[in-house]
Amino acid sequence: MKVAIVKERRAFERRVAASPDTIKRMVGMGLEVVAETGAGEGAQFTDAAFATAGASIAADPATALGDADIVLKVQRPVIGEEAERDELKYLKRGTVLIGLLQPLRHPAEIRAYAGAGIVAFAIELLPRITRAQAMDALSSQANLAGYKAALEAADEFGRAFPMMMTAAGTIKAARVLVMGAGVAGLQAIATARRLGAIVSATDVRAAAKEQVESLGASFITVDEEAAQSAETAEGYAREMGEDFQRRQREKIREVLKRTDVVICTALIPGHKAPVLLTEGMLGELAPGSVVVDLAVEAGGNVEGSRLGDIVSTPQGVKIIGHANMPSRIAVDASQLYARNLFNFLTLLVDADGKLKIDTADEIIKATLLTENGAVVNPAVAAPAVANVQAAAVS
Question: Among all residues, which ones are annotated catalytic?
Answer without folding.
Answer: 128, 133, 136, 139, 236
